[in-house]
Amino acid sequence: SQQGEEDPQALSIQEGENATMNCSYKTSINNLQWYRQNSGRGLVHLILIRSNEREKHSGRLRVTLDTSKKSSSLLITASRAADTASYFCATDRRTSGTYKYIFGTGTRLKVLA
Amino acid sequence: DGGITQSPKYLFRKEGQNVTLSCEQNLNHDAMYWYRQDPGQGLRLIYYSQIVNDFQKGDIAEGYSVSREKKESFPLTVTSAQKNPTAFYLCASSANPNNYGYTFGSGTRLTVV
Question: Which of B4, B27, B34, B43 to mutate to test the interface with A (most CBs of A within 10 A)?
């Protein structure tokens, strides 16, 4: 079953604009992660944000987490054509003492040059 | 360079055949994971292993089998019992997913012919 759901499913913007994508989840989490996937490739880890953090930055990326609303957002500022990819959020689920991550369905971002 | 290697990149399977997908990592990670990704979809967890000689079923384990005889290796067998095996398969590893996230391989695209 999906834990995280990204919104929108697809997003098309001009180079230089900001891109915002959102992730909603259903149950309590310890942390949430964002990943990028270029077409036909593996996923690349972008940022991990813990449940006691509200905001985190990495270069042009800004992630926020609102545990009361069970949602997170990923902002990419000053987007570039190279940012074209799918972006996934992943939330942890603890089962029998082990952690595993459940991925959402992703947001497909296209940045037009 | 440390990393995680999946092979082959493309694999074709005839109806009724078993096939094995290779996943090797030299990152000294304890945990390893197999995910399946269908077109335009998110990732679904097949199997995961927290330590050598131990593994657990994920959300869609039916028709798949794994082994974890060595820390570096976590092969996935897609058996003839898996009725719809055509998909993109991703292997990942992590030292501690709650602190560092996953490192993914580049994937194996399996097609039934």
Answer: B43
Mind giving me the DSSP string for B27-84? S--SEEEEEEE-TT--EEEEEEEEETTEEEE-TT-TTEEE--SBTTB--EEE-TT-S-
Q: Where are the alpha helices (DSSP H) in chain B?
A: 97-100
B48, B59, B104 member nearest A43 (Cβ) = B104
pLDDT tens string B45-102: 999 999 999 999 999 999 999 999 999 999 999 998 888 999 999 999 999 877 788 9
Q: What is the mean pLDDT of residues A66-86?
A: 97
Chain A's closest residue to B37, CA to CA, is A105
